[in-house]
Amino acid sequence: MGPASYHVSRAQLAFAEPTALSRPVQEYLQRWDKTLVVVSHARSFLNAVVTDILHFQAKGITRYKGDYDHFEGTRADEIRNNERKAEAQEKARAHMNAFIAKFRSNANRAKMVQSRIKALGRMETLAEILTDSTLCFKFPSPEALSAPVLQMNDVAFGYVGYKGMKPLPTSGDTAAVAVAGASDSTATPKLLFENVNLGLDMESRVALVGPNGVGKSTLLKVLLGELQPMPDTRGRVGSVTRAARLRIGYFSQHHVDQLDLKLTAMESFQKQYPNAKPLEIRAHLGGMGLGGNLALQRMSTLSGGQKSRVAFAQIMWQKPHLLLLDEPTNHLDLDAVEALIHALLDFDGGVLVISHDEYLVTSVAETLWVAEPGRVTLFKDTFDVYKKRELAKGASLGSAGAARPGKPKPAASRKGG
User: Fold this and answer.
1) What angle (nearest 5°) sits at the alpha carbon of residue 404, between those of residues 400 and 407?
2) Which of 2, 13, 63 has its CA nearest to residue 38?
3) CB-based burial label for 156 (10 Å; 0-12, 13-18, 19+)
4) Which residues contact 185 (CB under 8 A, 6 or more apart)?
5) How many CB atoms lie within 10 A of CB 346?
6) What region, left, alpha or beta, does residue 79 occupy, with left being phi > 0 and alpha being psi -120 to 50 degrees?
7) Which residue stretches of 162-236 are H helix?
8) Are 194 and 375 in contact (CB under 8 A)?
9) Per-residue pLDDT at 405
10) 79 pLDDT band (50/70/90 cuts)?
11) Residues forming a β-bridge with 282
């Protein structure tokens, strides 16, 4: 049994993608004194919990000490050092080959030629540590629109059966209830939120944050026009104003799951955009990291991140002015998340993103909208301040519901390995 197998067999806890773990559980894991094996694409979680990183690449596993940020820095140094070594090695190879070519027929230099041939054979070929060339997102630039390109004015919305705090008047608009998807148009819906007065322009970089179930994804659908504003508690119906030529790119958290996996990326694209020219599609897919044969493989054979690129490629074909992104990193690994962040920072349109990935939020967002029961408001401070506020709220409620699998040891006793 090899070392890796040995450590895994000793593990007391193992998690796959624990992005939904509560902070008390995360804090408990920080004090866990036994072996923990975790698979996660959540950078903040890895930085908080792990002491070692196992990096899988080119059918091999390399172990790095430290958290994810430390691993990333070490790996970047290795790439730079490897590139320098490879360059020096190529110069040495060229020099040896030139010597061999020049003196191969010279009997007096025969031994020297043979020694250099042997040296070339023994010379270690450096393993190329390269960033994945397919890890790229390239978002085309749309034409400019005057601000605001999308504005909510006193918007309210709710569902029948929602256990919110703000019921609508019984004389509410039954047509609006039907639009909301209620099965009983005579039932009284309750509001997820009301009095929302927020807007987006082409320079917006907004993160919509808040607990689950308070209407974040619903708000995006209202912005898109898939759902219509409903009467608020005083019977007023708000509105959503959109610029005349506005194009919105929408990535839902179920977008990848809705792809027809029997098709290739090329076929899927042609099905959605039948008038698009094949060469233009190939070039566009290549710009999203789907060049070569990847565009011609059935999507069932693609990784989750590659399927996400297919979805993004279809969204970006229309050159949207605004991107509304609902959990866009769900299927992306850490390198792909980094590539997406760079693309969003370079994008010449506006961005509104819902994400549990703190690294994405803090890297991209310049503004926070906070969704809470009954309202969505502008938060006039940083994400760190918001997070501390939410942690303080959680602490005031106590940690009685947190998972406690045994008595943890003090943090000082926790060691890597």
Assistant:
1) 120
2) 13
3) buried
4) 174, 177, 178
5) 11
6) alpha
7) 174-179, 216-224
8) yes
9) 45
10) confident
11) none
Residues above pLDDT 90, as percent of the chain: 34
Residues, the chain, total? 417
Residue 322 — φ and ψ, nearest 5°? -130, 140
Q: What is the pLDDT of residues 9-44, one digit of tens each?
A: 444 555 555 555 556 777 888 888 888 888 877 788
Of 364, 368, 399, 396, residue with least CA distance to 382: 368
Identify whether the C-beta of residue 137 lies closer than 8 Å to the C-beta of residue 158: no
The CA distance from 303 to 227, in Å, is 32
Query: Is the pLDDT at 109 greater than 90, yes or no?
Result: no
Output 410 or 225, whichever has higher pLDDT.
Answer: 225
For tokens 């919990």, what's the residue?
49
Look up residue 387 and give its two tokens: 């997070």
Structure confidence by residue, pLDDT tens digits, 207-228:
999 998 899 999 999 999 999 9
pLDDT reported for residue 374: 93
Residues pairing with 326 in the sheet: 354
Q: What is the DSSP letter of 242?
A: E
Closest to 54 in 3D by CA, of 113, 3, 89, 18:
3
Mean pLDDT of 351-358: 93
Alpha-carbon torsion (176, 182, 188, 193), positive or negative: negative
CA distance 222 to 351: 16
* Buried residues in 224-242 as b, exposed as e (16+ CB within 10 A): beebbbbbbbeeeebebeb
- Both tokens of residue 169? 């008047």
Band (pLDDT 50/70/90 cuts) for residue 136 is low
Instruction: Give the CB-side neighbour count of residue 320, counting CA atoms within 13 A.
Output: 22
